[in-house]
Design brief:
Helix 3 runs antiparallel to helix 4 (173-202). The protein is built from 9 helices and 7 strands; from the N terminus they run ααααβααββαββαββα. The chain has a 5-stranded mixed sheet with strand order 2-4-5-7-6, sandwiched between helices. It has a two-stranded antiparallel ribbon with strand order 1-3. A hairpin with a 3-residue loop joins strand 4 (270-278) and strand 5 (282-289). It is an alpha+beta fold and 370 residues long.
């Protein structure tokens, strides 16, 4: 932004310091002068012929007063310039860090030492902001790299299939079409998942009253057939749990949670339980599934994009795009909620979603409750 040139903050503070000091000195001299002249006679002989009169006192006092004011002015300018420089030094460091950040260097930190004051609080807030920006930029860069890799994979497979078909005229046409359809379906699913993830991150949706119990029942009904095919028992329990948000996004959230629970389950005889309930300041949807024990250090990484849960048990015939729980986390965050993932006792995973109730509860109460 182009701005007209002006005085620096240091110069303004210096002028302010010097001006205040000179003004205070002038007031002090005026008070002394006024009280002193009040008791000095204004005649040719002075007091009893031995004390100076007012005329002589003015002639001797005025030059000294002007000299004192000049000294105060010089001292105020010099001292004000030094003090202003020391006071504004933290702002200079913060400005330097901001310039580095503007040029793409987010690893730099101000790290002001000393006791807490306004400048150090500002520096600490700025360091925290830089840390969050660095984390988010790094996450976006990793996401872009992973998304590019994931999108390139089906295209490369399609190209390889077509190359084989061109080189081998006897290649079965039906097999070619089936393989291309499978690869194309995977690319479409991945693209739709990326679009949904971007939509939920931008929070471009209309909020309306939603009952999570109905969402859970619809998601379970949609995924009942895949669950039966994999020998997984799917159950929905609990009661009404009203929240405010996008019904379509919340349905996708529930479907992803249930699908993840079905896919990462026992090879046979597994169970998935979807439970909804209403609490004081939140509506809760919990999805619990059986499976092999999960390492505690693995659970926090499951919401990372393209993290497919290495070491988790998955049923045959499914290869997800690695965005299921990432989309869930994004949707929950867009609805001002919380997603908690925890290993289930005996093996498996417990995913708990807490959303603010639809009754208009304030968010700070919800945060204290959670």
């Amino acid at each position: 932004m182009n701005r007209r040139p002006g005085l620096s903050a240091r110069l303004k503070l210096t002028i302010s310091y010097a001006g205040f000091l000179v003004l205070a000195g002038a007031v002090l001299l005026a008070v002394v002068w006024g009280y002193l002249l009040r008791y000095v006679p204004d005649n040719d002989q002075g007091l009893l012929g031995i004390a100076p009169n007012r005329y002589l006192l003015v002639r001797t006092f005025a030059p000294a007063a002007m000299t004192a004011l000049g000294f105060l002015l010089a001292f105020g300018v010099l001292g004000g310039w030094i003090l202003a420089g020391r006071m504004l030094a933290p702002l200079t460091r913060i400005a330097d860090a901001a310039r580095l950040a503007a040029h793409g260097s987010l690893a730099h930190r101000v790290r002001l030492a000393g006791p807490a004051d306004e400048f150090r609080e500002l520096a600490d807030v700025f360091d925290t902001m830089l840390a969050r920006l660095e984390s988010q930029v790094g996450e976006q860069q990793r996401f872009a790299a992973n998304a590019s890799h994931e999108l390139r994979t089906p295209l490369a497979i399609s190209q390889a299939i077509l190359d084989v078909a061109v080189k081998d005229p006897t290649y079965p046409r039906d097999a070619l079409i089936d393989r291309l359809r499978t690869v194309n379906t995977r690319a479409i699913d991945l693209t739709e998942a990326l679009l949904l993830l971007g939509r939920s991150d931008r929070r471009h949706f209309t909020r309306e009253p939603v009952d999570l119990s109905l969402i859970a029942e619809e998601a379970a009904e949609t995924l009942l057939s895949p669950a039966e095919q994999r020998g997984v028992t799917l159950a929905v329990t609990g009661g009404p749990a009203h929240a405010a948000g996008s019904a379509a996004l919340l349905l996708r959230m529930a479907e992803n949670l249930v699908q993840n629970a079905i896919v990462h389950n026992l090879p046979a005889g597994g169970t998935v339980t979807v439970h909804t309930e209403r609490r004081r300041y939140a509506s809760v949807l919990r999805v619990e599934n059986t499976g092999r024990p999960l390492p505690p250090e693995l659970v926090p990484t499951l919401t990372e994009p393209f993290e497919r849960g290495t070491g988790r048990t998955r049923t045959e015939g499914h290869d997800g795009v690695g965005l299921g729980l990432a989309i869930v986390h994004s949707i929950v965050r867009a609805h001002d909620g919380m997603l908690e993932l925890a290993p289930r006792a005996g093996g498996g995973l417990v995913a708990t979603v807490r959303l603010p109730g639809a009754a208009g509860k304030v968010r700070d109460r919800f945060s204290k409750f959670c």
